[in-house]
Write a structure and sequence with these properties.
Layout lengths: L1 H4 L7 H12 L4 H13 L5 H7 L4 H22 L3 H10 L4 H9 L3 H23 L1 H20 L1 H5 L1
Helix pairs in contact: 2-5, 3-5, 4-5, 6-7
Amino acid sequence: LIARAANGGRVPRWFNEGLARAAERSWNLQDQSRLAWELVIGSPVTATELEGLFDQGEDGISRAYVVSDALVRDILERHGPQTAARVLARMREGAPFNLALFQETGASVRQLTLSFWSRHAIWERWIAFIGHPYTLWSFVTLLALVAICAATGVLASAA
């Protein structure tokens, strides 16, 4: 359907698959968790690198689908739900994908991916902080101290 809407114009696979997944179902907790995991274990990729992930092994392909889904959803959220239809309509009129996307969003593919990754870097920082051994051991220690105080009645006598 996407190729037909673009009149046979070349649509990058990341956009094609991301749009198909966005149309297929809602963005749920499992998808958000998978993206968060990809943000923790992976590094930001360009659109060209994202395209190449589809030709790699199972891990690369899985990452390509998660990031493509999130990137296309991000574009649709930022520029409106009809953005994809307008991009494909411009392609049907003969515009190449990069130009059609620029005309509809005012940003290049590179700018859109950089913007996407910069907004998601906040998640990466929080996840890295929460998952850091110092943070985890501090929480475990605090939990142990609360349990000891509760067991010995220190908290009850203070109240």
